[in-house]
């Protein structure tokens, strides 16, 4: 049977996009592996520098949670780094489309992403499953291993610099230090009185289930993405 012109286009598109997305996935996975190595080294270095200066109950600990997730606990904060397994293209309104790098090759706008979340470490320690965490940063990696970062305190590689360099260990150190610094200065605020003036009997009867009481650093307040 003769292949139609539409069928040929479909097959061509399958080959092109599949190869593109697989390459981006491989680059993102490689970058995430390097992130884990870098984070482990940073945690070890900081732990040595803090030796004898912290209460023994205060923890600085790196945890590898599998192929697509790793964690760093710094005192009362928990940073979770998660690689998404899918590949994304930016929407038409995103600033990335204004960069010469993407304008020269639209395929450069396809990226893998590594998300950075900030939680309270007690939320996991006491199984407070309803507690809120916050997305404080994202790292985008494309087919050329070029990257940019967006999020709270992230200034090392803005979107308009996309395409100027590849992601390496030094770049990751800057991104990780910015995320750690932001989380340490992102203090837990007392929720507004109006948010907590009513509780149920069930919340108190289930004494051991701390998840009945929701906690988050900005619970009851706006969490603005003002520097993204």
Distinctive features:
228 residues, alpha+beta, globular
Overview of the structural elements:
The chain is α+β, with helices and mostly antiparallel strands. The protein is built from 5 helices and 7 strands, in the order αββββαβαββαα. Strands 1, 2, 3, 4, 5, 6 and 7 form a 7-stranded antiparallel β-sheet that branches.
**What spatial form do the alpha-carbon principal axes imply?**
globular
- Please provide the ordered H/E string of secondary-structure elements: HEEEEHEHEEHH
Beta-strand proportion: 15-25%
The main pleated sheet reads as: 7 strands, antiparallel
> Which percent range fits the helix content?
25-40%
Tally of DSSP β-strands: 7
Unreliable spans:
none
Radius of gyration from CA coordinates: 21 Å
What structural category do the secondary elements indicate?
alpha+beta
Mean pLDDT rating: 86
Number of alpha- plus pi-helical segments? 5
End-to-end C-alpha gap: 53 Å
Overview in brief:
By secondary structure, this protein is of the alpha+beta class. The chain has helices spanning 5-49, 100-104, 121-125, 169-185, 201-205; strands at residues 60-64, 69-74, 77-83, 88-89, 110-120, 134-141, 147-151. The longest helix is centred in the first third of the chain and has 45 residues, at 5-49.
Give the arrangement of secondary structure elements.
Layout (H helix, E strand, L loop, with lengths): L4 H45 L10 E5 L4 E6 L2 E7 L4 E2 L10 H5 L5 E11 H5 L8 E8 L5 E5 L17 H17 L15 H5 L23
Antiparallel strand pairs: 1-2, 2-3, 3-5, 4-5, 5-6, 6-7
Helix pairs in contact: 1-4
């Amino acid at each position: 049977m003769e292949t139609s012109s539409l069928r040929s286009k479909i097959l061509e598109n399958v080959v092109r996009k599949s190869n593109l997305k697989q390459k981006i996935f491989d680059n993102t996975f490689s970058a995430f592996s390097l992130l884990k190595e870098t984070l482990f080294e940073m945690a070890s270095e900081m732990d040595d520098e803090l030796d004898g200066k912290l209460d023994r109950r205060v923890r600085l600990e790196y945890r590898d949670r599998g192929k697509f997730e790793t964690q760093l606990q710094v005192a009362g904060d928990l940073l979770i780094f998660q690689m998404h397994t899918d590949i994304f293209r930016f929407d038409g309104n995103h600033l990335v489309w204004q960069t010469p790098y993407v304008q020269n090759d639209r395929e450069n706008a396809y990226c893998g992403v590594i998300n950075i979340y900030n939680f309270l470490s007690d939320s996991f320690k006491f199984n407070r499953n309803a507690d809120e965490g916050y997305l404080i940063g994202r790292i985008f990696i494309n087919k050329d291993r070029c990257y940019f970062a967006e999020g709270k305190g992230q200034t090392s590689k803005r979107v308009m610099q996309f395409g100027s360099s590849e992601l390496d260990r030094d770049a990751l150190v800057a991104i990780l230090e910015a995320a750690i610094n932001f989380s340490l200065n992102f203090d837990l605020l007392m929720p507004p009185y109006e948010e907590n003036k009513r509780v149920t009997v069930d919340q108190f009867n289930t004494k051991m289930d701390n998840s009945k009481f929701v906690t988050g650093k900005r619970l009851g307040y706006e969490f603005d993405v003002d520097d993204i």
